Amino acid sequence: MSAPTGRDAFASNLGAFAATVGSAIGLGNIWKFPYLTGSNGGAAFVLTYLLAVALVGIPVMAVEHVIGRKMRLNAVHAYRSVVPGQPFWSAIGWVGLVSAILIMAFYTDVAGWVFAYVFKSLGAFVSGSTLTPETFGALAGGTWEPLFWQVAVLGLTMGIIAAGVSKGIEKVTKRLMPLLFVLLIVCDLRALSLPGAFAGVEYLFAPDLSKLTGPVLLAALGLAFFKLSLGMGTMTTYGSYLPEQTRIVPNAARVALADTLVSLLAGLAVFPAVFAFGCTPAGGPGLLFNTIPLVFAKMPMGGLFTVLFFLLAAIATIGAMVSLIEVPVAWLVEKGHVRRPVAAMITGAFMLALGVPATLSQSPVLADVKVFGMTFFDLFDFLSSNVFLPVGGLAIAIVGGWLVSRDAFKKELNKGYAAEPWHGRAVYGFVRFVAPALILLILLNSLGVLRLA
Ligand code: PHE
C-alpha cells in the first residue's frame, strides 16, 4: 500500500493494476486456495469460488474503488464521509481494522513456515535430501521454532513499515511476481507429468455437486473476499490512489482474472501431486508444504527449484502482509498523530498478542483449547474470512448500491468512458441486487436460518 499520508496516486493504469494485484496475490493463492479446495471436496468448491469472484468479488471491488477514488480518504474516514449524517457506516472501517489484526495473527504463522522452508529446502538441497511431511509436522507442531519464525516475519514487516520503505518493497515484489508465475508453470508441467496425475485434474475441475453444502458455500465466498483483499478497506485505500482515468470495472476484472489464474496454477501444481503420491487432498494447512518438495524431488535441479519456489512465495507474502498492516498503521498515523515507527509497534503488539496463541494452537501447548470447537488458528481464520469480510462486503455493497446517489456512483464508475458502457450498467445492477442478495443468502444459510444446501 502506498504512503498513508498525502493522496498521491499510482502513476499509470498499469501501475494501478500492478499494485492492486500485488495486494491480492499472496498466501491466499498458493497456500489457502489448494488447502480449502482439498478440505471442501474439490471441483464443486472451485466452481462456487469462481462464481463468487465473478458475481460478488468484482462488484464489491468496483464499489471499494469507486468510494476510495471519490473520497480520496483512508477507509475509516471514507465510509464515515460518504454517507453524511450516518456515522454508523464508518463501522466498515473499524471492522476492517479488526479483520486486519485477525488475519495477520494466522498469516504470520503461515508466512513463518514459508520462510522456514526457504532455509530448510536450502539445507536439503545442500545435503541432497528431501523435505518430508514429518519436516512440516515438526515445524508447525513445535513450540519455539514456529514462534521464532513468526516473530521474525512480523519484525521484518514492521521494520519495512516503520522505515516507510513499503513502496520500494512493493516495487521489488511486483518485479518478482512474473517469476513466481513462471515457476508455477514449471511446477505444473512437472506435476502433470507424474503417473496418476490426471486424477488431480479431475478433482479440481469435474464438480460433484452433491459436495455443495452450506459450509462449502460460505468457505468459497469467504475465500473470494480474502483472495481479492475485499470487505476490510484495503481496496478502498487502493481506490484512493487510483488515477482519474483508470476504468474501474475493466481494472477490477483483470485483477480478479490474474489472481484467479495464479490460484488455479497453484492448484494444478498441488493436486496432481497429491493423487500421484497417494496423499490425502484434505491434508489441511500443510498441503502445500508437503506436496511441493515431492513434486520437485528427483527432477533435475529439483532441490534448487524447491528453494526458489519458497523464496518467491516468501517475497509474495511480504507484499500482502505490508498491505494488511498498513490498514491499522495508516489509520493510527492519520487519526492518532503518532509517528510511523510507533504506529507499527502498536499494531505489531496487537498482532503478536493474537498471533502467538494462533501459532501455539498447532502445538501441544494450546491444541486442546477450543473456542466454538475451533483452535485459535482456525477461529481467527474463520472469523475473518467467513464472518467479518463477508459482513463488511455486504455493508460496502449496500453503501455503494443504495446510499450513494446513483448518479454520483455511476459518474465515478464510468470515468474514462464517453458514454455508459454495458458493463457499467451490469456491475451497478450486481452491486445493488445480486452481490448483497448472495452474501445475505449464504450468511443466513450458514446460520441455519435458511436452507440452501
Ligand atoms: N489477498 C491476500 C492473499 O490472498 C490476503 C489479504 C487479505 C491481503 C486482505 C490484504 C487484505 O494472500
* Beta fraction: under 5%
Percent helix range: over 70%
Overall radius of gyration: 21 Å
Low-confidence stretches: 1-6
* Molecular shape: globular
Number of strands: 0
Count the DSSP helices: 18
Attached small molecules = phenylalanine
- Give the N-terminus to C-terminus distance in angstroms: 38 Å
Order of helices and strands: HHHHHHHHHHHHHHHHHH
Mean pLDDT over all positions: 90
- Class from secondary-structure proportions: mainly alpha
**Largest sheet report:** none
Can you walk through the features of this model?
With 453 residues, the protein is mainly alpha-helical. It has 18 helices and no strands. 75% of the residues lie in helices and 0% in strands. The longest helix is centred in the N-terminal third of the chain and has 37 residues. It binds phenylalanine. Phenylalanine (PHE) binds next to helix 1, helix 2, helix 10 and helix 14.
Keywords:
globular, binds phenylalanine
Set out the fold topology.
Blueprint: H1 13-24, H2 27-39, H3 43-71, H4 75-82, H5 91-127, H6 133-140, H7 144-162, H8 166-192, H9 198-205, H10 214-227, H11 234-239, H12 248-276, H13 287-296, H14 302-336, H15 340-360, H16 376-403, H17 406-413, H18 422-447
Helix pairs in contact: 1-12, 2-10, 2-12, 3-9, 3-10, 3-12, 3-16, 3-18, 4-5, 5-7, 5-14, 5-15, 5-16, 7-14, 7-15, 8-12, 8-14, 9-12, 10-16, 10-18, 12-13, 13-14, 14-15, 15-16, 16-18
This protein binds phenylalanine (PHE).
